[in-house]
Amino acid sequence: MSIIVNGLPSTLPQDPRVSLLDFLREYQHLPGTKKGCNQGACGACTVLVDGERILSCLALAVQYDGRQVTTIEGLGDDQGLHPLQQAFIDHDGFQCGYCTPGQICSAIGMAAEARRGVPSHVSADLTGAATLTREEVQERMSGNLCRCGAHNGIVDAIRETFTEDTGASETVA
Ligand code: FES
Ligand code: FES
Fold first, then answer.
1. What is the pLDDT at residue 65?
2. 96 contacts 148 by C-beta, under 8 angstroms
3. Which of 80, 82, 97, 101 is the most buried (most CB within 10 A)?
4. pLDDT digits (tens, 9 = 90+) for 55-101
5. CATH for 83-162, among 1.25.40.20, 1.10.150.120, 2.120.10.30, 1.20.1180.10?
6. Is 169 in a helix, a strand, or coil?
7. Considering the entire predicted model, what is its pTM?
8. Closest ligand 2 atom to the C-alpha of 94?
C-alpha cells in the first residue's frame, strides 16, 4: 500500500488505526500540518487529497492508498512561495501562525470548489462559478478557526489571490 505525499511515494502504516494527520506528522516527519483539536472542529489539520480539502485528523491514512496528498510543505517550490503564501505575508494573514497551514490548504480547495460552482450557505445564485465576495470567503472558510485576530488579513489574502479566478467584480478591501 502506498500514498503519494507532496509528489513522493510513501509506504502506508501497517496499523490501520493511524490517522492521516498522525501519519503525516509522525511517520513522514512533515510537521507543517497542525494538530489543533484532533476532532474535526478547528481546521488546523486541513490538507489536500487529489485537490480536495479534507480534515486529516478525521481520516485514516490507509483510506488514501494510491491517492495524492498535498501538505503545506508541498505548495511552494524552488522558484518561491505559492501565491497564497505570499499574500498571507503581504496582508499579515498570520499572527500566531498555528492555523496558517490549514487555512492555506483549505483556501486552495475552497477556490476550486467555487470555480466548479459548488454553492455555499450564503450563495444567492446556485448555478455557475461562485463569486468570492467577502461574505462567501468568510462562510466557506468558517471551518478554519483563527482565534488570535488575523482573520481579516486571511480573508484579504484569499480574496486577493482568488477573486480574479472566480470572476469577482469587487475590489479587495
Ligand atoms: S485538528 Fe483536525 S479539525 Fe482540528
Ligand atoms: S493566525 Fe492562527 S489563530 Fe490566528
1. 96
2. yes
3. 101
4. 999 999 999 999 999 999 999 988 999 999 999 999 999 999 999 99
5. 1.10.150.120
6. coil
7. 0.93
8. 1
